[in-house]
Amino acid sequence: MKIATKLIHSGPTIDPQTGALGVPIYQISTYQQTSVDHFRKYDYARGDNPTREALEETIAALEGGARCLAFSSGMAAISTTLMIFSPGDHLVVCDDVYGGAYRVLSTIFSRMGISSTFVDATDLAAVESAIRPETKGLYLETPSNPLLKITDLRGAVGIARRHGIITLVDNTFMTPYLQRPLDLGCDIVLHSGTKFLNGHSDVICGFAVVNDTELGQRIRYIQNAFGTGLGPQDSFLTLRGVKTLKVRMDQSQLSTIRIAAWLKSHPRVTAVHYPGLAEHPGYAVHAGQADGPGAVFSFELDSFETTKHLLEGSKLAAFAVSLGGVESIISYPARMSHASVPAEERLRKGITDTLVRLSVGLEDPDDLIADLEQAMG
Ligand SMILES: *Cc1c(COP(=O)(O)O)cnc(C)c1O
Prior knowledge:
The structure is a single chain. The protein is an alpha/beta fold. It has helices spanning 3-9, 50-63, 74-82, 99-109, 124-130, 153-162, 175-178, 213-226, 232-242, 245-264, 283-289, 304-313, 343-348, 365-376, and strands at 67-71, 90-94, 115-119, 135-141, 166-170, 188-192, 206-210, 269-273, 296-301, 318-319, 329-331, 355-359. α2 runs parallel beside α9. The model has no long low-confidence stretch (mean pLDDT 96). Bound molecules: pyridoxal-5'-phosphate. Residues 73-75, 98, 100, 141, 145, 170, 172, 192, 194-195, 204, 206 line the site of pyridoxal-5'-phosphate. Pyridoxal-5'-phosphate binds at residues 73-75, 98, 100, 141, 145, 170, 172, 192, 194-195, 204, 206.
C-alpha cells in the first residue's frame, strides 16, 4: 500500500459499533469491569484510550514500526523515552538538537546521572570517537534544527551497532512520508506531532515509534507510570490532520524549493540552509535516505536590521515559534527554539542573530515571495 492510501486507511478507520467513518473521541477516564479475575482491555485512560490507540496504530503503520506511543507533547515523547536510560549511562547527541531536548538533557537528565556529549553528527568519525564504554544511545536529528545539517543515518546505525548501542532519531522535520529511520536500522523514532503530522497548529502532541516490541513495552510502562499519554480530543484532531499529510507536504515542499531558490540570489541573504539545494553539504546523503527535502529551511541575512524588519514586517508568514502548519511560520531560533541554549554555545553552533527559519505553509508561493520581499525592504 502506498503512503497516500496508508494515510487514509491505516489503523482502525471505521467504528465497529456504529459504522462511523472514524474513531470517536472517547472522552472517558474510567471503564466498568465485570469480573474480579479479568479486567477488560480498557480500565483507566491514563493507560489506554481507544482514540489514542487508533492514532498510535496509524503512526506505527506510517513509520513501519511495530509499536507507537502517543504523548501529550513532543517533549513528553522525548523525555519519557529517555527514561529507558539509567544513572551512569551516557548519550552521544547531535549538537544542534532541538532546544527543548538540549534543555532536558543538559539540565535534568544530567542531574539524574545520565550524561550527554554533543557532537557535530555530520562527522561520523566525531560521533564514533565520542562513544565511551558507558555510552548507551546515539540521539540524532536529520535534517537538524535550525541549520538543516544532515547525518548519514545508515553510517550512524553501523557505528551504533558495532558498539552495541541504540539509535534514536527525531523525525519531526521529515515525517514518515519523507523519511523512515526504522527502515534504515534506527531503533527509536521520535516526533513532535505538533508540527507536520497534525499540521494545523492546533494540537500539541508527540510520538515514539519502535520496531522491537519489548522496547515498546518498556517505553509504554514509563508512559503509563508518568502519565504522559495524549488525551482523546487531541488524538482525534491529530488523526484528522494526518490524513492530509501527503498533499500538504507535497505542496509546501514545492513552494519551499521555489522560495529557497529565490532567496539564494536575494542581495540581503548571505546563506540559505536547505538540503534541497545541490550546494548543501548534505545534499547527496539526504537524497540517499529521504524522499524529499521537506518544507522547513533557514537562511541568514546581511544584518540584524534586515532580520528585525523581516520578522516584524512579514504579513503572511506568522512571526511565531513552531512549524509544519498550513500557515507559513517565520521564526527566530536565537530567541525562540534555541533560547534555552546558552549564547556562547549557540554561536559556536552557528545559530547567529541574523538566522531566520521559515516553515512554508499552503499559501501561494508567489504571494509568500512578494511578502518576504516587502518585509526585507
Ligand atoms: C517542536 C519540536 C520538538 C518538541 O515538540 P513539542 O510538541 O513542542 O513538545 C521536538 N523536536 C523537534 C525537531 C521539534 O521541532
